Amino acid sequence: MTRQEIIDRCAAAAREAQIRDDVCSRSVLIGLSEYFDIPEDMIRASASLCGGAGASSGTCGTFTCGLLAVGWKYNVPLAEELEDPDKFGIGQSKFMAFRDRYLEAFGTTLCPEIHKQVYGRSYIFTNPADCEEYFKITDHNVQCAAVVEKATRLVAEFLLEDVEESAL
Question: What is the DSSP letter of 48?
Answer without folding.
Answer: G
